């Protein structure tokens, strides 16, 4: 039995990415067309609370990483779900991936003519 001061139980959370249109509707792309690597993965980086009255688990998801990489620019939703049940959605988050189309190089020079 857990006391109110023991660490919470760590849950298994999986995540996947959904490519979206400009209106944030899922696009017609298949997952393998915009994801290189695994189509979904698990959040394995977490920290348990210490020295707090309220116990909690803090989960971290840093992206990109070696197991998965997005290959197309556009709008995306990351969907996090519990226990391999993609219908049991815990959270979703919208973000955009951009490709650098133009590179600008600038140089700053000190003014040589005091009147200008």
Give a brief rundown of this model:
By secondary structure, this protein is mainly beta.
> If you average the pLDDT, what whole number results?
87
* Helicity, as a percent range: under 10%
Low-confidence stretches: 1-7
Largest sheet, spatial ordering of strands: 3-1-7-8
Q: Work out the oligomeric state of the chains in this entry.
A: single chain
The biggest sheet amounts to: 4 strands, antiparallel
Principal-axis shape = extended
How many strand elements? 8
Would you tell me the structural class of the helices and strands? mainly beta
Strand content: 35-45%
Account of the protein in words:
With 116 residues, this protein is mainly beta. Helix content is 3%, strand content 37%. The protein is built from 1 helix and 8 strands. It has one helix spanning 31-34; strands spanning 13-20, 35-37, 40-42, 45-48, 57-60, 68-70, 74-82, 89-97. The radius of gyration is 22 Å and the shape is extended. The N and C termini lie far apart (78 Å). Residues 1-7 have low confidence and may be disordered.
């Amino acid at each position: 039995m857990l006391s109110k001061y023991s660490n919470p139980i760590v849950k298994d959370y999986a995540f996947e990415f959904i490519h979206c249109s400009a209106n944030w509707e899922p696009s017609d792309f298949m997952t393998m067309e915009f994801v290189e690597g695994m189509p979904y993965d698990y959040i394995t980086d977490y920290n348990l609370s210490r020295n707090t009255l309220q116990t909690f688990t803090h989960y971290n998801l840093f992206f990109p990483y070696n197991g998965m990489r997005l290959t197309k620019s556009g709008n995306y939703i990351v969907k996090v779900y519990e226990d391999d049940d993609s219908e049991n959605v815990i959270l979703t988050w919208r973000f955009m991936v951009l490709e650098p189309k133009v590179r600008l190089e600038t140089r700053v020079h000190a003014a040589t003519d005091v009147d200008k």
